[in-house]
Amino acid sequence: MTQSRTAATFAPPVMEARRWLEGVTHPADRPLLNVSQAAPVDPPPAPLREAMAQIVMDDAEAHLYGPVLGLPELRQEVAKQWSASYSGRVNHDQVAITSGCNQAFAAAIATLCAEGDEVVIPVPYYFNHRMWLDMSGVKTIPLMAGDGMIPDAGDCAALITDRTRAIALVSPNNPCGVEYPAETLRAFRDLARAHDIALIVDETYRDFDSRTGAPHDLFSDPQWDDTLIQLYSFSKAYRLTGHRIGAVIAASERLAEIEKFLDTVTICPNQLGQRAALWGMQNLGDWLAGERREILDRRAAIEDNFHLLADKGWELLGCGAYFAYVKHPFAMSSADLAPLLVKEAGVLLLPGTMFMPSDMPGGETQLRIAFANIDKAGVRTLFERLSSLQL
Predict the structure, then answer these.
(1) Lowest mean pLDDT among 9-18, 63-72, 343-352, 355-364
(2) CA–CA separation, 122 and 128 (whole Å)
(3) Which residue in 48, 97, 100, 225 is deepest, having the highest Cβ count within 10 Å?
(4) Per-residue model confidence as pLDDT tens digits over 82-111
């Protein structure tokens, strides 16, 4: 009997890793360090929660169905702020609000691909992108990242066939943390445009980019929407993970197709979450700047303290946004090492094998550290535990 597509798709990695905790106890003097998931564990800041409480009580529309493509005021605010921050022109009808950034990716793929089509994604990849392609009957074409974990458009060109419908990039990258240079994104845009395919750029972590100013100039091209589809998440910026609010910025004609997908799946994005995202965009600029500084401080702590691991043969392959991507020195696969670290070091993280196709080398020596929820002292504690391993 033929397997369903979900049965043929690998299990959600974060949920699988959580099962490694079952039956393991952690002493009080060595509590678990959970660096497995790239999501804030704190609730939204108090002013935003207060605003949300007021919305719940006073805004009757927040409890009803809304427009499929999202709250008009939020779409307009995204368009205004994007136009300013990217020095380009984004119109409100080129913005749709989705139930999280994963849904934005799913919706985009639904408008681009038919059975057996292909999408090129760099590896190590964001596993949910691979999962959705598998469940959609779309073939993932892996593009091995190059020096500094940055993919090369020249290498990508050799992978494009008459079934290729898109190239999907994530910058700052998940899982590697690296920030793709503007010229890299420009080269991929030119490649996609030359082949009349889409360039999907997931910028979930754009608010924590270490660079000042716009990270790229793709939106400054007046014809950007003939090729570019940008994805975004409000979850990381305003700690709205449980409210599932994301966005897709694309040609208005594509959003008309995306509307079909969204209407069928969720009817409309979470109404309270949308209003919270709008309030955050309009009122929490200074607070978000402080959050960015804190993440950059933790990134600096990773780099400053990595010598503790480098002295034991570890390598730092990439670092930025919420992530450090490392190479371990042990004579075992990361798929075996990661569960062992729960018991031996009180550390939960994800193995590189979860970010790579099973038939490609490299993942067995790699690990992802999601450091957004450990402070600078926690970073040092993490490295001290890992450096003291005797395996």
Answers:
(1) 9-18
(2) 13
(3) 97
(4) 999 999 999 999 999 999 999 999 999 999
- For domain 46-284, say whether CATH 3.40.640.10 is its number: yes
Domain ranges in the chain are: 13-43+287-387, 46-284
Percent of all residues in the chain with a pLDDT value above 90, rounded to a whole number: 89
pLDDT band of residue 44 (cuts 50, 70, 90) is very high
Residue 121's identity, in one-letter code, is I
Q: What is the mean pLDDT of residues 71-76?
A: 98
| Secondary structure, 3-state, the chain | CCCCCCCCCCCCHHHHHHHHHCCCCCCCCCCCEECCCCCCCCCCCHHHHHHHHHHHHHCHHHHCCCCCCCCHHHHHHHHHHHHHHCCCCCCHHHEEEECCHHHHHHHHHHHHCCCCCEEEEEECCCHHHHHHHHHCCCEEEEEECCHHHCCCHHHHHCCCCCCEEEEEEECCCCCCCCCCCHHHHHHHHHHHHHCCCEEEEECCCHHHCCCCCCCCCHHHCCCHHHCEEEEEEHHHHHCCHHHCCEEEECCHHHHHHHHHHHHHHCCCCCHHHHHHHHHHHHHCHHHHHHHHHHHHHHHHHHHHHCHHHHCCCCEEEEEECCEEEEECCCCCCHHHHHHHHHHHCCEECEEHHHHCCCCCCCHHHEEEEECCCCCHHHHHHHHHHHHCCCC
Quick one: CATH architecture of 13-43+287-387? Alpha-Beta Complex (3.90)
Q: What is the pLDDT of residues 261-309, one digit of tens each?
A: 999 999 999 999 999 999 999 999 999 999 999 999 999 999 999 999 9
Q: What's the whole-model pTM score?
A: 0.96
pLDDT of residue 183: 98
Given a cut of 90, is residue 373 above it in pLDDT?
no
